[in-house]
Structure of DUF373 family protein:
Amino acid sequence: MKRPILVLCIDRDNDLYEKAKVSGPLIGRDKNLEGAVALSLADPEDPDSNAIYYAVKMHDKMKVDGHAVIIATLTGHRSLGYQADKEISSQLEKIVMEFNPVSCVLVSDGASDEEILPIIKSRIKVDSTKIVFIKQAKELEKTYFVILEKLRDPYFAKIAIGIPAVLILLLSISSYLGLGWQLVGILVGLVLLLRLSRFEDAIGGIIKDFRFSFERTSWIGYIGALAIITIGVFVGYQTFQKGMTLGLSNEKLVALVVGNTMWIFFIGLLVILVSKIADALMEKKKYRIAKYLLYSAAAGLTTFVLLVGCSWIVNLTEPYVDFGTFLLCIGISLVLGYLATSFVNWYRKEILLEMKIEGKEAISEHGTYLGKIVGIDGKKGKLIIQTVFEKRYTLPISSVSSVDDNVVLKAED
């Protein structure tokens, strides 16, 4: 059988899913037309739909010319950057594996998608590229209108307007308090490092897990936790006053306050986690329990290490803690953390086996359709996923993020 040429369209910011709720990749002429129509109706001004239409036109022309051809649209992520490129790479690799195309023709809607070209060239030969512009002055499209359009997008607005606003605010506050610009520089540097390490994605996922709603039983736990945390703040204030009276140095004062309040905050968090577990049981979503158990273990071990560390720094009363004891506690925490993670992974696997998720559709956290789950290999801890073209591959059970009507899988590093 003659190897096909791949007509490839890229939606790097995943507008198909963000605006039209169409999951990528789109493979085949009909799927691409349906996706383009849905996106056009959701946002007639979005240039991605024009690129897909052009790709369909090119597909039809090449087919008339006698070429074996297949069309596909790959989707990235709204935050662009690493996440988008990783999604596109993953989808492209699966398409190359399934269809074994001889080369591809890349259709793009602008400069942003051109950034993915080196990744595509590393996986498949690129015969030509075509950038599709809406009929108007090209340079104008690339500057003025693109800027205005992007500023309407909340994500880009937060970057273009939010970051300068925060910087101005921080510099003004720092100047008013007489702290200089150095503190602002440290804070901005830390934030940039956290973004580089994708730490904010993990924090965002955790915050999402703790969303508050009066429609769930867990609101009672939040009220109780608020009362406990209020007590913790009061205890912290009293401890601070005591430390000032004793004339402690800054580091000992901070350690004294943290050591006397950390366990109170941990109890407040534990109350919330217990209420979230109750929610999961009542909603018959037992799979979420594993996540809350892991959060509980992590919070408990972190509290333990901080309490011992603060005792080592302050050392005002018996039992006195030396540095060796502090290191021993860190080692014990690492071992307990490993055991807790192993138990939670085992518990997660057992829950999945009980839930009988075979037949459910698997999608990524960004809405990309991955296939249908056709089995679970309990011994190897693997999910068996079948694509629309009946190709099978496996992913670790630990990649499961949530289970509802669909099984949501997180990206594996």
